[in-house]
Amino acid sequence: MADHQEASITLPSEPVSVPAARSHVSRVLSAWGLAAGTELADTIRLIVSELATNAVQHTLGQSPTFTVDLRLEREERLLVGVTDSHPRRPRRLPAAVQQDNGRGMGIIRMLAKECGGQLAVTPTADGGKTVWVALPWDISARE
Q: Theoretical Cys-Cys bridge with 50: which of 95, 104, 111, 123, CB 3.0 to 4.6 Å?
């Protein structure tokens, strides 16, 4: 396997794109040796699902598309990023707020932490942002 592998897909910011993003990620992970149905594969799919849902719901129509990027570095670290063109950074709601939505970032943070990873948000050149999750990639220990 190469030292560095990348895969990317850009989708319309519409609810039907969320399952398409998950499917794309599943195919890429499988091609990179992570079997579907493993705990790590399911966790990554859930992270992508939450990030894609945020990109669709919280950009308020100001981001016509979003992009899912996957980067596997030296079979040691997986970077999962979702980029949109809306300038507002995601926010985690306080636990006391009674709302049915707004918990996605908390879920993502928790999943990343459970896997030994971390979350970061970086601005893009066009004024948007990318939400990144970095995860250790040791598939032999997780199968």
A: 104
Torsion angles phi and psi, residue 23, rounded to 5: -65, -45
Cβ count near 62 (within 10 Å): 14
Higher pLDDT, 140 or 73: 73
Percent of all residues in the chain with a pLDDT value above 70, rounded to a whole number: 86
pTM here is 0.88
**pLDDT above 50 for 36:** yes
DSSP sequence for 62-100: S-SEEEEEEEEETTTEEEEEEEES--PPP-PPPTT---S
Please write the tens of the pLDDT for every residue from 65-92: 999 999 999 889 999 999 999 888 876 6
Stretch (H or E) spanning 43: helix 39-57
- The pair of structure tokens assigned to 13 is 């910011």
Closest CA to 131 of 57, 62, 64, 67: 67
- Give the residue among 132, 126, 48, 130 at the shortest CA–CA distance from 89: 130
Residue given tokens 């794109």 in the structure block: 17
